[in-house]
Amino acid sequence: xxxxxxxxxxxxxxxxxxxxxxxxxxxxxxxxxxxxxxxxxxxxxxxxxxxxxxxxxxxxxxxxxxxxxxxxxxxxxxxxxxxxxxxxxxxxxxxxxxxxxxxxxxxxxxxxxxxxxxxxxxxxxxxxxxxxxxxxxxxxxxxxxxxxxxxxxxxxxxxxxxxxxxxxxxxxxxxxxxxxxxxxxxxxxxxxxxxxxxxxxxxxxxxxxxxxxxxxxxxxxxxxxxxxxxxxxxxxxxxxxxxxxxxxxxxxxxxxxxxxxxxxxxxxxxxxxxxxxxxxxxxxxxxxxxxxxxxxxxxxxxxxxxxxxxxxxxxxxxxxxxxxxxxxxxxxxxxxxxxxxxxxxxxxxxxxxxxxxxxxxxxxxxxxxxxxxxxxxxxxxxxxxxxx
Length: 388
Known about the structure:
By secondary structure, this protein is of the alpha+beta class.
């Protein structure tokens, strides 16, 4: 309505044009100010301009220390069109890194449901301990941590993990509320197609490959076989179609169980131990050992393999056989290899009904068929409830 009135006024009083232009500019400035959220600067004692400059200096320090075109993973990952426990809906916080660099590739910003975005979203339900080997194998050169959303205790635990287990170095800037850890090449790289399907594994330095720190979806035995069969291991490109099962993905249908296994094929073993997370809460570490001649992927297929538990009394008689709980992880467990899972104790239902002096026994199961202990060559793992 205001625009119609001003247009009409210009027609009847053209000599007012200069004043009307000033009036329109004034209204536009007021509208712009009105659209700025009252809480747009949540930085406490740090002004928005100081924070911007600190972030720019930090990101440019990273950029100057890495080769041009390097990939950097932003943790925690957030898709701006999806809800996120750190950022919520519609967050553009990760775009800050793009503002301050010109020759680095950042992990955030892919179109929703694109192959790249789906690849990243597939990592979000995993721990950084599981994510880091995948980043190393995929050619990432570092991880940028957003300390505006990571709690100090959480970041401290992540830093302890990466410095201790992976020997990574860190730089931290309290003014920018950012931290960065450098990722060294693991001696090989997985190359992906445009659809983010792994199609080639390239060996750069076989001496640097740590078989204990490979991603869970790489078969240690099959990779070793492919390397040992080559006469030139330092210039080796492994075609993953020709070497089936070296790198496992969802197109590796053999790991999905669409039929019931015979009792003789139920060949697996579990080992359990108790550890504590960053909040000093107990969690259960389960080593899953696949003694069969078939690769597993847990919790997929018509008759999925999974892990449930039983509650036993002090004499190890069964008090509760199965309450339907299953460990949710869709982990790959290649044949004759071991993978490790973490179970938060708070995920286990009915804990208040457990006897103090009993046991919890975790066991592999093929749902719709039978539990693995039907085969005496398989083994469950048991923990005293008083330890939990």
